[in-house]
Amino acid sequence: MLQTVIKPNSYQDSINLMLLTNKINTLDGVIQSQIMMGTDANKDIYKAAGLLTDEAAAANPSDMVIVVESDDAAILDTVLAETEAFLADLSVKKEAAGGPAEATSWEEAIAQLPDANMALFSIPGEYAAPELERALDLGLNVFSFTDNVPLEDEVRLKQKAHEKGLLFMGPDCGTGVISSVPIAFTNVINPGNIGIVGASGTGIQEVTCMIDRLGGGCVHAIGTGGRDLNEKVGAVTVKDAIVALENHEPTDVICVISKPPAPEVRDEVVDLLEKCTKPVVAIFIGEKPEAHQGKVYLAHTLEETARIAVDLANGNPVKKNYLEPLDFTCDEPLPEDKTVTGLYSGGTLAGEAAMMITEALNLGSIIKEDGYMLRHGGYDVIDLGDDVYTQGRPHPMIDPEVRIKMMRDYCDMDTTGVIVFDCVLGYGCHPDMASALAPVIAECKAKAAAEGRTIQFVGTVVGTSHDPQDYERSIKILEDAGAIMEPSNAMAVRAALEFKGVHFTEEDREVVPYEVKDTSPLPEPSEAVMELLTTKPRVINVGVESFNDPLRAYGAESVQYTWKPMAGGNKRMIHLLTELAKVEGIDEANERICQRFKESQPQLVDVVVAKDVIPELNREKKTLLHAGPPITWENMQGPMRGSCIGAALFEGWAETEEEAVKMLEAGEVEFIPCHHCHAVGPMGGITSANMAVLKVVNQADGTTAYCTMNEGIGKVLRFGAYSQEVVDRLHWMADELGPVLAKALKLSDGGINLNVLIARAITQGDEFHQRNMAATLNFLKEVAPLIVKTDVPEDAKERVIQFLADTDQFFLNIMMAMGKSIVDYVRKDEEGCVVSTMTRNGYEFGVRVTGLGDQWFCAPVNTPIGLYFTGFTAEDGCPDNGDSAICETVGVGGMAMVAAPGVTRFVGAGGFEDALNISNEMEKICVEHNPNWSIPTWDFKGTCLGIDIRKVVATGITPLINTGIAHKNAGVGQVGAGTVRAPLACFEQALEAYCAKLGIE
């Protein structure tokens, strides 16, 4: 039985999830499990394991997917509890460690470390290319531990880095040292005067550790990724690194380590090395050099490479032969039918072992297929770090499980005589690999002995005395378990061959002349690369958090970019966002748009009859304005239909509900969005000809907007109620409330300045969508003296003032008209990608964008989540309605939740901490802040300003809207209040259209 749990938008790095999976698989009752992110590549792994459920197949790349196979349905509770405990423990450890500063975007990361000079990547390869390119565009050198980057992307990105004067280290760059600071999976090496360029991770580790143990030291070990000497890549990074080390004064010796290169590229690299003034040692693994060439000393093994480098660094002459005696003598060779097996966590070490065994036994040439570096007549050498073994599992340097199984499997084979292995220490590796392997070695030797067989384990520890696992201790643990330990991988292989009666030898090597093919002078290194090599690195760490540990321990600065897939892993959106990032002028346009927001000067100047100012309401055909994007009667939900019925009764178009419904169903009424008429309407948004509307003028250029007045609470038209009480109130508002307010406003000096009123009320706890108490009272404070001065009857004055005093939400509709006057002014600049309208009609959520004019981008609207009045539940709630999201469009309402801690629990958002988190989240999708409306509870930051569709799509964060909740049936009214999210699809559609406008396919 398979059980699946999806945790939406819950990104964790793959290493943590692999370790968690291993832990879950040890639980009693779990047959097998897999916990991964819902990427396409990971779904293939689920499928191969027989764990791909329908829910897992439908998951998004940013979702954490938990699939458990068990015969016990109750086991899932245990799995979820263990998962929560594991992730919580990570969080506690991180907090206790007092780690580096954190960022959730490139912008934040750069703001926290403005002089950063390197980005360190350890993210899934399928999403890496756009992020790697972004780092280059930000002027950062790149170190990409990330692998599985397509070769064509590597070629393009490395060429771009070269043109920008930056180093691109990787992809699949496992280790490095920059200015004596260890990077990624790395050992702690003594500083020194040797500079290494390596297209091999464990090759670098083996050589640097031997240099350290021989008394030398390294200043740099520049990893390039294993494909750098590929014919298509052309050794771009190797060449740039060699030129940089030649010009780096503290580097006295240059050492180059390469996996088997393309012949033409190898010759180009050797040509370049011959032009260097500094002594050079190089190894092209798989080659057996017969002589040194010109200035370049060529090594056969990694051990020899280290020994030559140390001699050169000490000013000693290079010997003709570096074969050192072994630490042991083989007294009892194995029978002829016994073979040698290599089980390696390091790919280059496996390659070296395969090369040496192949040469010694004349087995042909090394291979690399299905994880095997050698597979010939029982002689197997396996790279357990190959993709075959690491898909969905931690690397064997982290987790010994696969190697332990392999050791036991080969121990059970009668032909196995010797197992050669590595034990790699350093940052990023298993905290005590020797202790994990030692019991298995002892177990296997004892089992073979009990069966009358002999099996030998010969190993090497790749590490130094400075590594956190302790080199000497690791060797002793393995020796105590019965393993024969040698100081290098080459010596371990030689020892294994001794058990076969084979003595590995090296021929003396002389120096032969070399004629340089390309006589052009060495190029000059870039300033950026030399700056990287002459200072401690300043790193933005994108991915695995533990990579910060060695950086900070050895004096580098780092910022943790808590990356998750852009656009939720939607590759189409990632492509569009990446292309948009290359377009100049968008940010400037958005800043200009935001300036229009800030310079707006809305004034409440009048209350008028709707038909007198909205021409569309004077048509021959009966017409109603409604909230949201365009909609038909058939798609209207209960509250909006109820509002239409109430408006028909108010206008006298019908005498009864039945007559009104018949007329509406017959198509006798035309429906127009309020937004098409410079108007807005709350909830149902229905505005008819004879209703009274507020008139707000934006003094920036005279842009005018209208909104009906707030009816109060309870059974009101905006929530779909249409009883006689509702209709009577609407008539009173049109016949008395509106005219009285109109007369009062005419006595003011140009109306009421709404910016000032907002600035005042936001300091008093309003967010202007759900809570308007302070703003309403401030409005009453402004308008009451004016009402008193009018010539209307005293009882009318009293009724109007009492209504305003009783209607806490009265200012909401003023806020809406104000917001509409601002966005219609903003929309006159038809550039940029800032949201200029958000609205909903109970059926669809609609968005407009500055650079796309009047075009609507719509998606099904969500239903609010919140608190319900007594007697009602979520089953009664209607999908969201209303133009009141204009509040959030201009930066208040849910966008400014932190301003109104008194209302957060009413709308279901929890306490103040939740309100703060919401506003911090909303900040991530906006261009800037509005200094006109400063929030004391947010350290006096201004409200969020300018929702950027790029940021919404990239982060997956959609605007949060505070809202009332209407009953789904017409005529009932409000049943609660809460919050609702705008659907992401609106913004994705807008992004598609915006890219199309700019010619991006």
From TrEMBL:
GO terms for molecular function: succinate-CoA ligase (ADP-forming) activity; succinate-CoA ligase (GDP-forming) activity. Residues 191-286 form the CoA-binding domain. GO terms for biological process: tricarboxylic acid cycle. GO terms for cellular component: cytosol; succinate-CoA ligase complex (ADP-forming). InterPro entries: AllG-like, CoA-bd, OXTCase_su_AllG_h-dom, SUCC_ACL_C, Succinyl-CoA_synth-like. Gene3D superfamilies: conserved protein of unknown function from Enterococcus faecalis V583, Enterococcus faecalis V583 domain, NAD(P)-binding Rossmann-like Domain, Succinyl-CoA synthetase domains, v583 domain like. It comes from the Bacteria. Residues 343-496 form the ATP-citrate synthase/succinyl-CoA ligase C-terminal domain. PANTHER family: PROTEIN FDRA, SUCCINYL-COA LIGASE SUBUNIT ALPHA. This is Acyl-CoA synthetase FdrA. It comes from [Collinsella] massiliensis. The lineage of its organism: Bacteria, Bacillati, Actinomycetota, Coriobacteriia, Coriobacteriales.
